[in-house]
């Protein structure tokens, strides 16, 4: 199958418009429509349905997008960096990820990094921002995705902001189309992260802005424990959708938007001044993280808003 047609398909899926995709790809709309038609004929299925605002993926189209976006990107990276010094790197790259990103980011990010660094091995540490920063300062983690940290020893560049939602168990009655006021949210029995950054900070700041009291029933430093408590109906949580999308899709959790407060979790790439990596290598790792995150957001896999657009340089912060 022509990989160019798959690239065209993925761009149309991202833009949800053949016209916009054609403009970004620099080809005529009729030519792009023809390439899409040929792809659909090869596969024997319709990939899009037309709407008033553009196009939407069919069920078959969504399956194709999910199964090809990552491998196609990894193939392009492998071809791009074959024969470069990066492709010959033989060492362990130590990455840090927050628990909330594990399901959405781990596999595609490692796939892309493995394509750029085919001789490297990888170590992934999962934890809160506090723990990941501590590990970076100890030299146990090279580069991490973390919440903002007021620490001069850490270079940090923001990548995205995730909206936070009220999450409840399957019997909670929460509705994705019916927002809940922030005053009502803080009156619920809540399970909150024990860490001082991320969701906990966002909740505290929102409570201060709304001039309401903020309390909780349960605290934990484990995201799986938090989701288990919510699923059991013992408490509600405030989480980004990336942290619980699988449970929501399985019907084990429900969610609703929160009104009256702008609740977001911000994430960015971080490293320390003592980073023991060559500059070219560290910059490429940061760029790969940024590009993979951007691809996931554009595809709709990660519900978030991108912030950073400049390349990341840990030597400049």
From TrEMBL:
Gene3D superfamilies named in the record: Periplasmic binding protein-like II, Winged helix-like DNA-binding domain superfamily/Winged helix DNA-binding domain
Q: Where do the TM regions start and end? A: none
Listed InterPro entries: LysR_HTH_N, LysR_subst-bd, WH-like_DNA-bd_sf, WH_DNA-bd_sf
Q: Which residues form the HTH lysR-type domain?
A: 1-58
Matching entries from PANTHER family are given as: NITROGEN ASSIMILATION REGULATORY PROTEIN NAC (PTHR30293:SF0), TRANSCRIPTIONAL REGULATORY PROTEIN NAC-RELATED (PTHR30293)
Q: Where is the signal peptide?
A: none
In terms of domain of life, where is this protein from?
Bacteria
Main role?
Required for the induction the katG gene for catalase. Involved in the response to hydrogen peroxide.
Q: Name the protein family.
A: Belongs to the LysR transcriptional regulatory family.
Native organism: Mycolicibacterium peregrinum
One Gene Ontology BP term is:
regulation of DNA-templated transcription initiation
Supply one GO molecular-function term. Answer: DNA binding
The protein, known as: Probable hydrogen peroxide-inducible genes activator
Give the keywords, sorted: Activator, DNA-binding, Transcription, Transcription regulation
């Amino acid at each position: 199958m022509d990989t160019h047609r798959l690239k065209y398909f993925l761009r149309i899926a991202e833009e949800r418009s053949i016209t916009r995709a054609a403009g970004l790809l620099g080809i005529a709309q009729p030519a792009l429509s023809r390439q899409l038609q040929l792809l659909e004929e090869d596969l024997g299925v319709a990939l899009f349905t037309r709407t008033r605002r553009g196009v939407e993926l069919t069920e078959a189209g969504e399956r194709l997008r999910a199964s090809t976006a990552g491998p196609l990107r990894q193939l392009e990276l492998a071809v791009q960096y074959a024969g470069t010094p990066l492709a010959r790197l033989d060492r362990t790259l130590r990455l840090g990820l927050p628990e909330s990103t594990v399901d959405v980011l781990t596999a595609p990010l490692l796939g892309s990094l493995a394509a750029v660094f085919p001789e490297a091995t990888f170590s992934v540490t999962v934890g809160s921002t506090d723990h990941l920063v501590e590990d970076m300062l100890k030299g146990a983690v090279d580069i991490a995705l973390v919440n903002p940290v007021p620490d001069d020893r850490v270079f940090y560049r923001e990548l995205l902001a995730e909206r936070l939602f009220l999450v409840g168990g399957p019997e909670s009655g929460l509705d994705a189309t019916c927002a809940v006021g922030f005053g009502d949210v803080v009156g619920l029995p809540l399970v909150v992260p024990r860490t001082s950054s991320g969701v906990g900070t966002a909740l505290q700041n929102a409570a201060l802005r709304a001039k309401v009291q903020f309390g909780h029933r349960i605290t934990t430093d484990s995201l799986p424990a938090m989701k288990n408590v919510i699923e059991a109906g013992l408490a509600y949580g405030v989480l980004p959708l990336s942290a619980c999308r699988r449970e929501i899709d399985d019907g084990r959790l429900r969610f609703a938007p929160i009104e009256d407060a702008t609740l977001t979790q911000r994430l960015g790439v971080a490293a320390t001044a003592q980073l023991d990596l060559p500059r070219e290598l560290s910059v490429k790792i940061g760029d790969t993280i940024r590009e993979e995150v951007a691809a996931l957001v554009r595809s709709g896999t990660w519900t978030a808003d991108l912030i950073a657009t400049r390349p990341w340089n840990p030597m400049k912060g």
